[in-house]
Every structure is written in C-alpha cells, then in structure tokens.
Amino acid sequence: MPSIAMKQVLSIGWLALLLGGCSSFNPPQAWEKGLLAKPEMTMGGDSLELRFDEHSYASKEAAAGGSGVGGGGCGCN
Fold first, then answer.
1. Contacts for 38 with CB less than 8 Å, ≥ 6 apart
2. Which regions of the chain are under pLDDT 50?
3. What is the CA radius of gyration of the chain?
4. Which of 12, 23, 52, 59 is least surrounded, with the fewest CB atoms within 10 Å of its CB?
5. SS (H, E, C) the chain
C-alpha cells in the first residue's frame, strides 16, 4: 500500500505530464483553416433553413414569434 507521500509524488508527476502535453499545442495558422472558414461551418447554420424551420414550427403551433428576445405568440412584450 503506497504511503500518502508517495501518492502526492505520483499525483504531481501525472499533473506535470498532463500540463507538459498541453503546453506544446499550437493553434492552426490562417492558411490551415481553409475548410473551417466556409459559411457552412458556422454554428448558426443556413439562414434559409432556419427560416423554413421557423415557418414550419409556426404552422404547426398556430402561433408566430417567441423565438426572439422578447414577446410571445400573442404579441405580448
């Protein structure tokens, strides 16, 4: 059974190993981001598809709005 001091030494060793592996990370350069710079890769997605989804949701729920900041389908603010 390892002693408490040995456990501390091992945990510090693991921590140093993990932090040492993270320190060598280099972010990608501008010319390496070719595919990531395309509009299809944004988190927002396609604006036309978003409008279609909102339209189909409003048609199913028989209410409009409510997806923005304020107000609901009834027009209340």
1. none
2. none
3. 26
4. 23
5. CCCHHHHHHHHHHHHHHHHHHHCCCCCCCHHHCCCCCCHHHCCCCCHHHHHHHHHHHHHHHCCCCCCCCCCCCCCCC
